[in-house]
């Protein structure tokens, strides 16, 4: 019997030029390939994307437009199942339309009697209680439910989902490797590189002003070079330019911006070249952890706190209480004591990287067993004749 092929649809926030969500997709694709090979299953992913042409070209996969119901229906109908995730898909903080969309895709797959796998999602915040029933009903019928933190599990349990139905695993990006053939940058700044991932948040720009003040303190007390890493284009690039301008002409020669990086593994390579990282974006912090780069968190959302908690860390400051002195102090400490931080976190990070493969392993095992059952039934039918 040859290797079974399995078409599988992947639903998430893909094609929007958000490096974090693209990293989630890349990590899922790589994990499915690796775990499929171990279980003897070859997956053919079909990705739901707002920009299918770009997604197909970037990852070498099939892709259909996520907002065209007929195309989504056709993709699901011709597939063996649906992966929903990862990322923060089921939340109503940014829009009341987000949860209905992702639940609708799940329900569509379930109407077609396809197995659904919730893949390392961050659930919440969910402010509108009317969504609780939608999520509970859809998740009860899923083949497997994995979430990326204990808080997400607790929220699902509070919605009425059975505790044993939900497994906590790390964010899939923890397991993402550097691209093949990656070499260290030959032209490097004189001093250590501090990666900085910022985004717009407060209307008065108080958090970005605090970042600029913190970086100014670090540049005054070290030979560091600041490398801005825009994770969501073009908005993060504009936020980076704002902070760069706040630093003033004196430090312009000691700052740079990584422009137009859209492939997640290329951004991962940028992070890997840093000595420390200051991040507002969750996946900037996850990238740093995955490459053993000491990080400083500036929290705008509980998901930042939840991830750092898994490393026995806390944010240095928040957008609600931006503290430039605390940000600068932690950055300077990382520059001076980088090796000690790495040694302290090494075992914890390695464990998270290994566990990040678990959802893909479970999916591959499900389809491997399904192939064995189908083969056995085929033999019985032949013998019966």
Please outline what is shown here:
The chain is of the alpha/beta class and 385 residues long. Helices cover 48% and strands 16% of the residues.
Structure in words:
The strands form 2 sheets. This protein has a 7-stranded parallel beta sheet, with helices on both faces. It has a 6-stranded parallel beta sheet with strand order 10-9-8-11-12-13, with helices on both faces. 48% of the residues lie in helices and 16% in strands. With 385 residues, it is of the alpha/beta class. The mean pLDDT is 93.
Secondary structure topology:
Blueprint: E1 5-11, H1 19-39, E2 42-49, H2 52-59, E3 62-65, H3 69-77, E4 82-87, H4 98-111, E5 116-121, H5 130-140, E6 144-147, H6 150-158, E7 166-168, E8 193-197, H7 206-221, E9 225-228, H8 235-247, E10 255-257, H9 264-272, E11 276-279, H10 282-290, E12 295-299, H11 302-310, E13 317-318, H12 324-336, H13 338-355, H14 358-384
Parallel strand pairs: 1-2, 1-4, 2-3, 4-5, 5-6, 6-7, 8-9, 8-11, 9-10, 11-12, 12-13
Helix pairs in contact: 1-14, 4-5, 7-8, 7-12
């Amino acid at each position: 019997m040859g290797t079974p092929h399995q078409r599988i649809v992947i639903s998430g926030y893909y094609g929007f030029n958000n490096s974090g969500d693209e990293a989630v997709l890349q990590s899922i694709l790589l994990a499915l390939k690796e775990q499929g090979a171990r279980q003897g299953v070859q997956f053919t992913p079909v990705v739901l994307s707002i920009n299918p042409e770009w997604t197909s070209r970037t990852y070498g996969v099939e892709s259909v437009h996520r907002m065209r119901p007929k195309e989504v229906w056709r993709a699901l109908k011709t597939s063996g199942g649906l992966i929903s995730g990862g990322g923060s898909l089921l939340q109503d903080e940014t829009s009341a339309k987000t949860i209905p969309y992702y639940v609708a895709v799940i329900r569509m797959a379930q109407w077609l009697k396809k197995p659904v796998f919730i893949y390392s999602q961050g659930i919440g915040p969910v402010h509108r209680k009317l969504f609780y029933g939608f999520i509970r009903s859809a998740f009860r019928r899923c083949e497997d439910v994995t979430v990326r933190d204990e808080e997400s599990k607790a929220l699902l349990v509070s919605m009425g989902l059975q505790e044993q139905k939900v497994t906590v695993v790390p964010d899939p990006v923890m397991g993402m490797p550097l691209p093949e053939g990656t070499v260290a940058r030959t032209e490097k700044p004189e001093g250590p590189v501090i990666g900085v991932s910022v985004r717009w948040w407060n209307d008065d720009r108080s958090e970005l002003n605090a970042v600029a003040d913190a970086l100014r303190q670090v540049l005054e007390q070290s030979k560091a070079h600041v490398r801005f890493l825009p994770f969501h284009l073009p908005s993060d690039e504009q936020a980076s330019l704002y902070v760069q301008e706040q630093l003033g002409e004196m430090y312009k020669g000691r700052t740079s911006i990584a422009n137009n990086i859209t492939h997640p593994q290329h951004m991962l390579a940028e992070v890997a070249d840093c000595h420390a990282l200051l991040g507002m974006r969750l996946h900037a912090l996850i990238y740093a952890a995955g490459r053993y780069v000491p990080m400083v968190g500036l929290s705008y959302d509980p998901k930042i706190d939840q991830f750092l908690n898994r490393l026995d860390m806390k944010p240095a400051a928040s957008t609600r209480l931006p503290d430039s002195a605390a940000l600068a102090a932690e950055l300077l400490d990382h520059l001076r004591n980088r090796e000690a931080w790495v040694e302290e976190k090494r075992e914890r990070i390695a464990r998270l990287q290994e566990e990040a493969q678990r959802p893909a392993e479970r999916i591959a095992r499900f389809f491997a067993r399904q192939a064995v059952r189908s083969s056995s039934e085929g033999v019985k039918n032949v013998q019966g004749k």
